[in-house]
Amino acid sequence: MYFYIFPICAVALIVIGCVKIYIKLTTKWARSPTCLLGKTVIVTGSNIGIGFYTALDFAKRGARVILACRDYKKGEAAREEIIKKTDNPNVFLKIVDMSSFESVRAFAQEINKTEDRLDVLVNNAGMAIVDDEKTKDGLLMAMQVNYFSLFLLTNLLLDLLKKSQPSRIINTSSILAQVGTSFSVDKLHKYNGNLDVYAHSKLAIILFTKELAKRLEGSGVTVYSLHPGAVKTDIFRNAKGLIGSFMTSLFKRWMNLFFKTPEEGAQTTIYCAVEKNIEKFSGHYFVECRRVNDYKRATVPGLGEQLWRDSEEVVNLTN
Predict the structure, then answer these.
(1) pLDDT digits (tens, 9 = 90+) for 43-96
(2) How far apart are CA 136 and CA 138, in angstroms?
(3) Catalytic residue check, 191
(4) Which of these, 174, 204, 173, 158, lies nearest to 42 by C-alpha position?
(5) Which of 198, 224, 271, 285 is an active site residue?
């Protein structure tokens, strides 16, 4: 029996090595030299992971960077690290809790009051496993954090974005938008397992992006959604219970072996923010720094309009 252990381990190591090499070779990097001096950008969920490396890149390009984070201590640590790494002192922390519409409105009100311009809004904040936990607004936690607060925040900042045009909105979605049960607007309010909630929230982001692009046509503001790739982040930090903790631990081991680093995962976000001459692709979906075809689920006629109407009511957009 022991005779077979060594060759099995050797094959496993070779497979892991080949996968890692493949990931490195297929990961695309945002190579545009675009300077962001004089530009203002906001990145939600930017104290760690993809959001942190996105904000770091923008700071290197000379931008005024606003880190929109929920946790002050972690956000301040990220701000200090970015300033240290870039020598750009124009990095600021603003607190926003995406699980609270009240917090989102307060954040947007402050930005509109204190900022003269907004050139890039990156909606990056998100979460995965929280079971059927509800927010104080009565919505599924993951659905509100991933989608509804994104919808509200973007709409509340649209006037500032239009004032600063040409400007861009970048929405982080996921390849998982194409899985789960069949999508309908009413399912955004029903818990049918963590995968369904996450997948539906990410599909909603793609549909929102497409609908928003139509509404912004001719405004000078363009919008893009993207899949960052399979990235090693702490998105499952909110998992609860014995099963949730076990699955998180198991998934982290898998991530360490096969997933991209957060810096690699940030590249498509950065590409959509700084790449020149992609305005004609407003509303489109990007993977590995290139435009790709929409998932079939995102092409249902009228679904984006229906989702928009529902979202307006949920977030009480007119008030």
Answers:
(1) 999 999 999 999 999 999 999 999 999 999 999 999 999 999 999 999 999 999
(2) 5
(3) no
(4) 158
(5) 198
